[in-house]
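W.,

You were right to be curious about this one. When I first looked at the sequence I had no strong expectations either way, so I just let the prediction run and decided to look at it fresh. Below is the sequence, 136 residues in total, followed by the output.
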Amino acid sequence: MVFKRYVEIGRVALINYGKDYGRLVVIVDVVDQNRALVDAPDMVRSQINFKRLSLTDITVNIKRSPKKKTLIKAMEEADVKNKWENSSWGRKLIVQKKRASLNDFDRFKIMLAKIKYVCSTDAEWMNCSENWSCNR
């Protein structure tokens, strides 16, 4: 398997630690071998250690240290938000956030729905094994 996620200007990354945890940012400049200058439409440009970034497959076509307006336009053209929400990684994080925001009663309803689903599939399997009428 070939490595494809290089640290480069225009690479979209996910912050995996700190106060901006879970935020998508774009690398706009590389400071040194340990830090990058990152920016996003809703945050102030700042330096972040590479250990706090998870690189994604998404890239934006920008030059080094663009203005905020140029960065926002390039992100819209690259459709970063939709690409992220349609990726398996992004969908997984969205589901995790939804589950974390559930209250006790919502979790109880989900438990009942799972039990109902399992019982229905088990009943179908039992009928199938008795009659041998299903295709296996």
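Here's what jumped out at me. DSSP finds four helices and five strands in the chain. And, maybe more interesting for your project: Strands lie at 11-15, 24-30, 35-39, 46-49, 53-59.

Coffee later to discuss?

I.
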